[in-house]
Write a structure and sequence with these properties.
It is a single chain. This protein is α+β, with helices and mostly antiparallel strands and about 140 residues long. It has 2 domains: about 40 residues; about 100 residues, no CATH class. The protein contains 3 helices and 7 strands; from the N terminus they run H-H-E-H-E-E-E-E-E-E. The strands form 2 sheets. Strands 1, 5, 6 and 7 form a 4-stranded antiparallel beta sheet that branches.
């Protein structure tokens, strides 16, 4: 027995199949990117360092300088290919002073954001490098 399909019926079947395949490709790409970020450790360290810096800011006394060892964060960023020597180290941890946000980005995907509650004025975060450790430093001033 032979089925006869007209052109309109074949188009109606093809379009949903193409849409389904495209959605599956997009979903698989997002899943692979998430798994890659998780396996590299970037997601965990981004969250840890963002929360550490946020809590240090909230507990700080005005007119102090905060120092934090970020060697592991720099190592993870190097393994993910976003740090080449001293290049981009000052972009690993950034402050959005207008929204009280700390962003830590150690991989190729968007980083982890954490909100701090204090209304202090913060200097730009700087990662100082010596042969043993990488130290993040920034000043907390009265807002």
């Amino acid at each position: 027995m032979r089925r006869v399909l007209d052109k309109k019926a074949s188009v109606d079947v093809t379009l949903p199949v193409v849409i389904f395949l495209l959605l599956n490709i997009v979903f698989a790409t997002i899943l692979i990117a998430f798994v890659n970020k998780t396996l590299s450790g970037a997601a965990i360290y981004e969250e840890v360092y963002a929360k550490k810096v946020g809590l240090l800011i909230d507990e700080a006394i005005p007119n102090t300088t905060i120092y934090l060892n970020v060697s592991k964060a720099v190592e993870v960023a190097k393994n993910n290919g976003i740090v080449d020597g001293k290049k981009l180290k000052n972009e690993l941890i950034t402050f959005d002073r207008a929204n009280n946000l700390i962003t830590v980005k150690l991989g190729n995907l968007p980083g982890y954001e954490y909100t701090y509650f204090s209304n202090y004025t913060l200097s730009d975060p700087i990662i100082n490098v010596n042969q043993y450790t990488d130290i993040l430093s920034f000043e907390v001033k009265n807002g």
